[in-house]
Amino acid sequence: MGLTIDEFAASTTPADVVRRQYPASAAGDLEALRATLAPDVEWTEMAGFPLAGTYRTPDGVTSSVMEKLGQSWDGWTAHDDTFVVNGESVVVLARYTATNKATGKPIDVRVAHHFVVRGGLIVRFEQFVDTALARDAMTD
Question: Contact at 8 Å (CB) between 97 and 108?
Fold first, then answer.
């Protein structure tokens, strides 16, 4: 038997914390997304990705990553489908879909995310993605 909605919202297990951030991000609910992030979070977007770099603090992550994705892409969504959990580490296999606003080109690319969750909050994130597909969608 699964968790109730209230139990899921209150759960501090690493998998549940990570699972909550995906729909928050997809819905553009930055407050709910920030609620999953530790004050000293380190969020790394892969080298070669348009937003490559490491961002810190929940506000830094949402303003430097999520808000910028929304400015450049329509419908940016990470579709999470497979979770591999080992203690505080959660690896998620997912897919990004969106349409670039400048070119009108769609993106549909597989991605892997590695999260570390401590004390019910995400303390570290690292993205792995085919950056060439993102760049291709951004160029004419």
Answer: yes
